[in-house]
Amino acid sequence: MKGTRSSVALLAAGVLAAGLCAGIVPAAAASPEAPAPACTTSRLVPGGAQRVGSTQVRVTVINEGPGPCVLKSFPTVAVAGSGSPGKGKALSVVRQGQARTVQLPAGGRATTQLTFTPVLGEADGYCASGADPVVAPSIVVGVGGGGGLQMAPDDGGEFALCGATVRATAFH
């Protein structure tokens, strides 16, 4: 039995040595790939803002960069006053759940779910708190710092909410 182990060990060492001489590097010894860069708004484009209910919107972003990128974050959100990102009103984001690392290949999509405090009533509506409702034609979603992606609802409507808070899931 001892002779068999020695023979196997010598055979394995010989195969490894032959592979190294031939320029073949075993997988365990290969250098790891460089990590993908962070997904930022310079690599991402809006993929849609789909209503999922009266108070929820599923926001999708698409990686249009030349290669994969890594996303591990919650969005920042602002309502865009008069449809302009510069006239936006930042909302306080209440994080729902835990952020996990998402590897987005080129062309890959990631989503987050936003939940707004609803506007009550018909037509002009009202807020239960007594505050005036906020209505905007678009929102600006920040991803990875350095700017935001402006999006209008896919159904052509407007965003309407009460207060200055939005609940958001991490991108997945």
First-residue to last-residue Cα separation: 53 Å
How many H/I helices?
1
Overall geometric form: elongated
Number of strands: 12
The radius of gyration is 25 Å
Give helix % range: 10-25%
Q: Main sheet: which strands, in order across? A: 1-2-7-12-5-4-9-10
Sequence stretches where pLDDT stays below 50 over 5 or more residues: 1-31
Order of helices and strands: HEEEEEEEEEEEE
Largest sheet geometry? 8 strands, mixed
Share of residues in strands: 35-45%
Quaternary form: single chain
Strand pairing plus helix content: what structural class?
A: mainly beta
* Mean residue pLDDT: 81
Structure overview:
The structure is a single chain. The protein is mainly β and 172 residues long. The chain is built from one helix and twelve strands; from the N terminus they run αββββββββββββ. It has one helix spanning 2-21; strands at residues 44-51, 56-63, 69-71, 76-80, 89-96, 102-104, 109-116, 134-136, 138-142, 149-151, 159-161, 165-169. Strands 1-2-7-12-5-4-9-10 form an eight-stranded mixed beta sheet, with no helix packed on it. Strand 1 and strand 2 form a beta hairpin. Residues 1-31 have low confidence and may be disordered.
Structural descriptors:
single chain, 172 residues, mainly beta, two-stranded antiparallel ribbon, 12 strands, disordered N terminus
How do the strands and helices of this protein lay out in sequence?
Layout: H1 2-21, E1 44-51, E2 56-63, E3 69-71, E4 76-80, E5 89-96, E6 102-104, E7 109-116, E8 134-136, E9 138-142, E10 149-151, E11 159-161, E12 165-169
Parallel strand pairs: 5-12
Antiparallel strand pairs: 1-2, 2-7, 3-6, 4-5, 4-9, 7-12, 8-11, 9-10
